Amino acid sequence: MSEPAARPGPRSAALFERARRFTPGGVNSPARTFDGVGGGAPAFIDRASGARIHDVDGNAYVDYVGSFGPMILGHADPAVIEAVQKQAAKGLSFGAPTGLEVELAELICDMVDSIESVRMVNSGTEAAMTAIRLARGHTGRNKILKFAGNYHGHVDALLVNAGSGALTLGIPGSPGVPQSVVDDTLVATYNDLDSVAEAFAAHGDEIAAVMVEPVAGNMNCVPPVEGFLEGLRALCDDHGALLVFDEVMTGFRVHPACAQAHFGVTPDVTALGKIVGGGMPVGAVGASRRVMETLAPTGPVYQAGTLSGHPLGMAAGIATLSQIRGGAVHAAIEPRLDALVSGLEARARRHGVPLTVQRAGAMFGLFFTDASRVTRFDEVAACDGAAFRRFFHAMLDHGVYLAPSPFEAAFISRAHDEEAIEETLNAADAAFAAVARG
Ligand code: PMP
Which of 152, 245, 405 for a ligand 1 pocket mutation test, highest count of atoms within 8 Å of Cβ? Predict the structure, then answer.
């Protein structure tokens, strides 16, 4: 295969120059920079359709970022686009309830067993923020236990040992978050129940909630070890704390009824985002009716939003979840991901590159390591970062778009057909060869 031109191209580079003059780092979310993979201009995107995104230089990429999770149907799914267009023609936002909000709420409650009542917000961050306020208000306790390498958005109290962009850029805490705000945040080790039991032994009657990503997707893709989620459930029950699943990433992706159905562990509160809005800015918090009615206006815990339940977001969410509900989307994805994973493993082996692939539902992660399984944050951090960077750039140059960080999960969609998988594996062959060359 001849060496392709390095991507992205001059138009992306020019836009990046302009962007940097008017926006910090040239991006509106740090996870989009290429700073974690050697810097330079990221691809600026013009449009996307199905499994592919197209940049402003005319390069097409098979996309495994999927807007960092929402695009499980593929980009520009016709039913979603039509629903949004139809709704847009009727007006953008009213500040008064609509039938669309009822419809999406009913869909969520129907699909997710633990959710009887739901409040719409505008992002995953807001969902996580609301979830912990709700847990604190409901229990009358202040402490929240989270896990190093889990990310719950840029919520002050949760921006401690965070994953995703904070991890990529080496700033897992943040200036601007007062110490007093994180005094009530306890940090345990993901997949290590003993570390959680220790925290409960020390602070059992002060812990309002354990907040966890049921599959850790902001330190690459790390599924829970056997018994971990069950153990969290039991510890929360023993100590009167609420178990909060942050399913912003895993919700409707790991399983049509969320990760909680896949693993058979029922949380008290669920934070949703990404897929629930079908690519529009939507988040949601759901729980039993009893817990949810702690929120205003039925209860004293205040939470509000001018644009919450936004008609375009609701329309996109309904058009997305109604396709996921019957299970056909996940059923279509599974064999494609099987082919992708076994193909990647075979090609890595052929080039002598140590690689482990982990997956859960329609998300997966590549680990450049000799270890056959990666379960802890320190094991993720110990993977070969230089190999990832070489792989990332070679894949990009060969037309495959991965997240520019070894700490992000990868996302596959229903639109990743056999052709897209084959294209990916051909690119991977060249990319593993580049990694092997060093
Ligand atoms: N929780 C999890 C598990 C996430 O992955 C993310 C975003 N990647 C968030 C919360 C924050 O969501 P948002 O970026 O929509 O605010």
Answer: 152
Nearest CA to ligand 1 atom 15: 124
pTM of the model: 0.97
Specify the CATH class of 10-76+327-437 in words. alpha beta
Backbone φ and ψ for 388, nearest 5 degrees, come out as -60, -45
Q: Is 270 in the pocket of ligand 1 (CB under 6 A)?
A: no
Q: Is the CB of 432 under 6 A from ligand 1?
A: no
ipTM score assigned to the predicted complex? 0.99
Q: pLDDT by residue (tens digit) across 359-379?
A: 999 999 999 999 999 999 999
Enumerate the domain spans of the chain.
Answer: 10-76+327-437, 78-324
Nearest ligand 1 atom to alpha carbon 213: 3
Domain boundaries 78-324, corresponding CATH code: 3.40.640.10
Please write the tens of the pLDDT for every residue from 86-128. Answer: 999 999 999 999 999 999 999 999 999 999 999 999 999 999 9
Cβ of 250 closer than 6 Å to ligand 1, yes or no, is: no
Taking CA atoms only, the protein residue closest to ligand 1 atom 12 is 124
